[in-house]
Every structure is written in structure tokens, then in C-alpha cells.
Amino acid sequence: MTAVIVETDRQGAVSVPSIESLAIAQELGGPVTALVTGAETARAATALAAFDLSDIVAVDDPPIEPGASTTLVSTLAAWIDAAQPELVIAPHSYSARDYLPRLAARLDRPLITDCLGVRIDNGARVFTRPLFQGKLVADVVLDGPSPHFATFQAGATRADSARPATVAPRVTRRSPTIGPDATQVGVEPPFHDTSRTIDLTQADRIVAVGRGLNDGKHLAMIQELATALGAEVAASRPVCDLGWLPLDRQVGSSGQTVAPALYVAIGISGAIQHIVGMKSAKTIVAINKDRDAPIFEIADYGVVGDLFEIVPALIAALKGGHSGNT
Amino acid sequence: VLTIAVCVKQVISRESTLRVDAAQAWVNEDDLAWVMSESDGFALEESLRLRERHGGEVVVVSLGPARVGGLLRDALARGADRAIHVIDESAATRADPLLIASALAGGLAGERPDLVLTGLQSDDLGFAQVGVLLAEKLAMAHATIATALDIAGEHVRVRRELEGGWMQWLTVPRPAVVTVQSGGHPLRFATMRGIMGAKKKEIRTVQAPADVEPRQRIVAVSTPQRRRAAEMIEGDPATAAAELARCLQS
After folding, report:
1. How far apart are CA A161 and CA B29, in angstroms?
2. Cα B40 to Cα A85: distance, rounded to the nearest angstrom
3. What is the average pLDDT across B9-32?
4. Contacts of B220 in chain A (CB under 8 A)
5. Residue A148: in which H helix or E strand, if any?
6. CB contact (8 A) between residue B128 and residue A301
7. Tens of pLDDT along B24-39?
8. How many Å apart are CA A210 and CA A263, to the nearest integer?
């Protein structure tokens, strides 16, 4: 049996990456059990019952407080001990990064993270995952007794490839297992950074800049291009970390998720953390010095070269100026 | 006295051109520049700031072959007080985060850190696991993806990053392992005085366990397949820019 640990928001809506994980488990074959925790598991269980699953296990008696990883670990450890899944799958979310390694270490079983896919080769599961921030891809095999644990990055498969139910799954409710470390960590309610003032989700065109800019002093050039295109300026995480642009300009998993008509990515290599925030843009243009940069995998138009040559030439061309050739 | 251990990893610099090795199971490591993994640098910076505020010592720990000595010397030059080098010449550990965490825990045996910091994930393998695995191995509490932290009595206050711009505060009892997000405070680099001073600081060496059996093996490394190849606009910058402008305006 393959178990999928399903994540929900505070209202009990199942996350899209969780449904992708269900689809991956179904594709591997054999019975699939979805395990859901959180505040509104009844709503989640109803949504999950639409999929081809053997079992839904809802841990809600009482619910586990979101962010309380210690109780999640002890609860999952007890359930896995009883249910004996061969493989446990979850999305590679921030939450999974917090509790899953602890669970794997406690059970002394291997956990492979951030997978792009899994296939069966000569009877063995072969996982693919990125190396060097996506510049290369590795095939990885896990050894030793089950269960094995795996997380998949968002977009590893399509959520709409999850098979619908033919027979209603069996639903069981469980109580959390409270371990001796349960009250160790005090968890406060999530809050949103109130300093956010720019709503990039409303922008029709975005010019985004990344680490390739080398220095914040070159931002004037990027701003000039954005003005020529009637676009907002955005950035990948490193640019905000380096203080070149404020955090509210950040696109990606820890920033805003955007879907503009045009997204121009300049000096952005295309780490998955950035891609998840902008891949739905209608037209994507990438300018990067590295022909092998992952951003070209999702771009519609690509230019390989030095951004300090291409961006000024592009500004000139957009303004109708002549840039040497007539 | 507050003791902060910082686990840092030496990785191939981002600027390097990576070539898959002959066995197609890793990259050719000859003639590459090696640097501290980015978020580990921020973990080191946080530890130095905590020591400035609260006193104590910073012990920097790294697992790897002889080349890692240079990384530790650099961390000492930036201000760490002493170092532990867990010597591991084997390539088998590389792909198995549980083995890495066990070896680091072995390096910390005999130490009693109040706080262990490390980056949230490495720039090369990017497991995002080792800090949390280490917490379980050391029977410490943990917190992940910290964007701010401070000591508060017997606890650590951590601002944890969640997805989509959300965050939350955690109060974690010490001893604890905290994984640190990039960003935070600007990094300090070694001064000439720091470099001179580092020569007198201790680097203790510990052997990583031998004859380990990894349960994760890289069986092949390749360049990723292009899913939706971009229409590549070629030519010199002016020509390419003009063509791109035409595409954008049509």
C-alpha cells in the first residue's frame, strides 16, 4: 500500500500538490491510502472521496494544530507502525520539510525529497530529483526495509491526472498520538507580512530580475525596460535577500504567485522555487547567459547572452531607436 | 556559556560549468571552485551575531574530504572560535542524508551545544533534511526555515517562513536545531586580521564512520530534458534584441 499525506489549508481545502501526490501514488499501482490531518478534515475527506483510493484516514479526534510537527511525527509514526505502508508520499512543502525528516529519522527509513518523478525499472522504484538547483537531474534508488518516504515538487505531475473514484473509499477517523515531546515547541498563529504594498498578481506585464544582475545599481536599467514595456518590476528570491529590491517584489514559493500576460525573466536561472510562482504566465521570455538554465524549459522566447548588452539593446528597440543595424 | 554549533557544507560554486563524470553518476570535480553553501553562510552569520549579543562560542562543523579544511579556516577567519572537521573521503555518504546527519552527530559527540544552526538546504544536493535529521539524532527540538532568531532565556525565538509570504513565530526549548533561510543579515567576510587569527584557532578532526551502507544511491546523472523548449532568438545582442522586440510587439 502507498500512503499519501494530504495537506489542506485552514478551511480544509486539499492542496493541488497533494492531489498530484495522489496521482503519482495511483500511477505506481496498488491500493492508495490518503491520510489527512488538520482542522477541517471532514471537508477534506469529502473532497478526497472523489478519487480512486482504498482508504481515507482522517486524524481529527481532536485535530492536530497546524505547525505542531512533534504531534504530527508521533501520530504518523504510530499509524505507519500499524498500517505498514510500503511507500509514503507527500508534497515537498515547507510543512513536509519540517516534520518528514524527523519522522524518517525516528523510524530509521530513507526519505528522498523534491522528486520530479518516479518510475519502475526492472521491478525497482527509480526516483528522479534535481541536483545543483536543477542544472542536472539524478536517478536515485532507495534500499533497505520499507516504508520508504518521498516528497514530490509542485508540478511533478498534473493534478487532473488523478483517477476518480469508482467505489467510495473507506473512511476511518483516528486520534492523534501524543508523544513526550508534544508541548516542546510553542506555535503562534501565522501572519502575513504587512509591509507588502505591491500586488504583483494584478500586473498584466512583469519584468523580473535575478541573481544575474550582479549588483543592485543595475536596477535602473531594469526599471527602464519595465517602463518601456508598461510592466511592473519583480525579482527572484536572491535579489530580495541581497536587499536590491524589497520583499514585496518577490515572485516564487515564498513570495507572490503571478500569471501575467507577459513575464520577462532576466538573469533568472529558473530554480523551482521561482518557477512555481510564474509558470502560468501566458508568454514567458528568458534572457540568460547560460544556455542550459532551466528557465529556458518553460520560456516561450529565449535569448542567450549578456544581459548588460541585450537589455539596453532591447530598450532601444522598443523605443523605436536604431541600435547599429538599419 | 552559550555554545552554538554551525554545520556548514562545502559545495561547487554556482558559477562553475558542470560536466557529468565518466561513470554518469556524479560530476567531474576537477578544477572547480568550492564555496560555502549559501544558506549555511547565513547560518554562520546568525551564530556570530548571537554570540555578539549573548556571549559564548561558535563551533563550526563540516563533513567532507581534506578540501573542507579550507572552508573551516575561512569560517574561523570570519569569526568562529573553533572547528570540527568530520573527515569523510567516501563518496557513498553524499546521496544519503541520514548518513550525513549521523556523521555530523558523531562530530558533535562530546560537545554540548545549546543551539545548532545550519542552512535550510544545500546548493548541490538540496535535500532540505539534514538539519531536522540531526535534531532527531541529537534528541533536540527543531525549527525550520528561520528568517529571524534570538535567544530568549531557556528558549529560542524563531520566525519561521511559511509559503506564500506567511510566517509564524515559534518558541523552541534549548537545545535545539534551527535551519536558516538565506537573506537575514548581510554576510561578513574574512578580514586580514581574521585570517591571521584563524591560523591559531583549533580544527579538531574526527573520522566519519567507515563501512557505511547508504540507503540512497545515485544511479545516473543527466542533463534535464527540455519540456517546452523556448524559441531561441539567436544573433548578436542588437539583432536578437530587435527580433525579441518584434515578437513582443506583434
Report:
1. 40
2. 35
3. 93
4. 138-139
5. strand A148-152
6. no
7. 999 999 989 999 999 9
8. 13
